[in-house]
Automatic annotation (TrEMBL):
<comment type="similarity">
    <text>Belongs to the peptidase S1C family.</text>
</comment>
<dbReference type="InterPro" id="IPR051201">
    <property type="entry name" value="Chloro_Bact_Ser_Proteases"/>
</dbReference>
<dbReference type="InterPro" id="IPR036034">
    <property type="entry name" value="PDZ_sf"/>
</dbReference>
<dbReference type="Pfam" id="PF13365">
    <property type="entry name" value="Trypsin_2"/>
</dbReference>
<dbReference type="InterPro" id="IPR043504">
    <property type="entry name" value="Peptidase_S1_PA_chymotrypsin"/>
</dbReference>
<protein>
    <submittedName>
        <fullName>Serine protease, S1-C subfamily, contains C-terminal PDZ domain</fullName>
    </submittedName>
</protein>
<dbReference type="GO" id="GO:0004252">
    <property type="term" value="F:serine-type endopeptidase activity"/>
</dbReference>
<dbReference type="GO" id="GO:0006508">
    <property type="term" value="P:proteolysis"/>
</dbReference>
<feature type="domain" description="PDZ">
    <location>
        <begin position="304"/>
        <end position="410"/>
    </location>
</feature>
<dbReference type="Pfam" id="PF13180">
    <property type="entry name" value="PDZ_2"/>
</dbReference>
<keyword id="KW-0378">Hydrolase</keyword>
<dbReference type="InterPro" id="IPR001478">
    <property type="entry name" value="PDZ"/>
</dbReference>
<dbReference type="InterPro" id="IPR009003">
    <property type="entry name" value="Peptidase_S1_PA"/>
</dbReference>
<dbReference type="InterPro" id="IPR001940">
    <property type="entry name" value="Peptidase_S1C"/>
</dbReference>
<keyword id="KW-0645">Protease</keyword>
Length: 425
């Protein structure tokens, strides 16, 4: 996350460990009985290399080989205080943040979280700097592509600031092949402590949680994340989660705090990482973004239920409406109303129908467009909101087909929609 200031208190607890040797006299049944003296150990535990467990040695090798590909990220974003007028002329404030990232190729591309490098709105921070493992200087980095909905970003050192030998990519693995219980090594900068390592296991391979930031100002899109008990704290965001083969299986993104909220409190042993396959699928679009924003694929509809929110009109699902009102309008209990179908879009080619009438919601709270299809399922998953549909589309590519379950009038039917280039523009 990007806290303005993260106070750090390191408390050293000294534990005095003592041992008492108790010698008991064991009764024996005969005069000929003897006690065999204890034999000294055949090997000394003082030899560190010999004392290392196989798992320890594996962790050491992973760290030594791949930690040089880890990146420490700092950001600065200048903004004018909203309340400056109360105290005279507007005053500029500088918001600073820290996070992590890692090299993924010889060109110097660095994967990280969007929220690590984000500034105001969906833009990047005014200044992004990186520090390499073992280095003392920081260098400026530029944004190649931002994907707020995925909470992913691609940055790169500015041309000429690093030598080719400085770039040490970490190989990417296959997150579809991970197993619950396997080893997980998290790298990053918790609380700004640069180049730290923690270890745990994969606690769940496909945990549905909201990740990222909606372009309309709503919550993030629900994704299937990797859950791990490897310690992840503020500053770890954007760093790699590696398997026992040293390949990246995920990108550390958030934790579950003791208060029960996903956010930026201290670790409670429940952390989440974006599966690396999600990033691999998105990578070509990020590399071609030229500093712009990459959005989740779109099928070409405008939702039919819009309410006024802090960021303007927000699309909602039918579950928010009064049950009596839905019955009176012939609507299902849950689903995403199709208000408008854009010509030439995947939705139009699949035959989806938009609304034919519109009415205001009480007290000017928004509008509802009726008469169109209601999407109630996609790819076998229930749909009630735009985010539900986007979650199904997140890892899709050009040419993929999506099966939609829709309600039209009083009938439920299935249609197949094909994503083309227009869905990714």
């Amino acid at each position: 996350m990007k806290p303005r200031a993260l106070p750090l208190l390191l408390v050293l607890l000294g534990l005095g460990l003592g041992a008492t040797l108790l010698r008991d006299t064991l009764p024996v049944g005969g005069a000929q009985s003897t006690v065999t003296p204890a034999q000294p150990p055949t090997s000394s535990l003082s030899a560190e290399a010999g004392a290392r467990l196989q798992n320890e040695q594996n962790t050491i090798e992973i760290v030594q080989r791949y930690e040089p590909g880890l990146i420490f990220i700092t950001t600065e974003d200048r903004m004018v205080s909203e309340y400056g007028w109360m105290f005279g002329p507007p005053q500029e404030q500088v918001q600073r943040g820290v996070g992590s990232g890692f090299f993924i190729n010889a060109a110097g591309d660095i994967l990280t979280n969007y929220h690590v490098v984000a500034g105001a709105g969906v833009e990047a921070a005014d200044r992004i700097q990186i520090k390499l493992f073992g280095g003392q200087k920081t260098v400026d980095a530029e944004v190649i592509g931002l994907a707020p909905q995925y909470d992913l970003a691609l940055i790169r050192p500015r041309r000429g600031q690093l030598a080719p030998g400085d770039i040490r990519p970490i190989p990417l693995g296959d997150s579809d092949r991970i197993a619950v219980g396997q080893k997980a090594v998290a790298m990053g900068a918790p609380f700004g402590l640069e180049f730290s390592v923690s270890e745990g296991i994969v606690s769940a391979a496909s945990r549905p949680i909201p990740i990222g930031f909606s372009l309309s100002g709503g919550e993030g899109i629900t994704q299937l994340a990797i859950q791990t008990d490897a310690a992840i704290n503020p500053g770890n965001s954007g760093g790699p989660l590696l398997g026992s083969d040293g390949r990246v299986i995920g990108i550390n993104t958030q934790i579950y705090s003791p208060s029960g909220q996903a956010g930026a409190a201290q670790s409670a042993g429940v952390g989440f990482a974006i599966p690396i396959n999600t990033a691999k699928n998105l990578l070509p679009r990020l590399q071609a973004a030229r500093g712009g924003v990459v959005a989740a694929p779109r099928i070409g509809i405008v939702p039919g239920l819009l309410v006024q929110g802090p960021g303007g009109g927000q699309a909602l699902g039918l579950s928010v409406l009064d049950p009596a009102s839905k019955r009176a309008s012939g609507l299902p209990e849950r689903g995403l109303l199709v208000g408008t179908v854009q010509p030439g879009s995947p939705a139009a080619r699949a035959g989806l129908r938009g609304a034919d009438r519109e009415q205001a919601i009480a007290r000017g709270a928004g509008v509802i467009r009726l008469g169109g299809d209601v999407i109630v399922g996609a790819a076998g998953q229930d749909v009630d909101a735009l985010e539900d549909l986007q979650a199904v589309l997140l890892d899709k590519q050009v040419g993929d087909q999506i099966e939609l379950r829709i309600v039209r009038g009083n009938q439920t039917r299935t249609v197949t929609l094909t994503l083309d280039e227009s869905a990714f523009e």
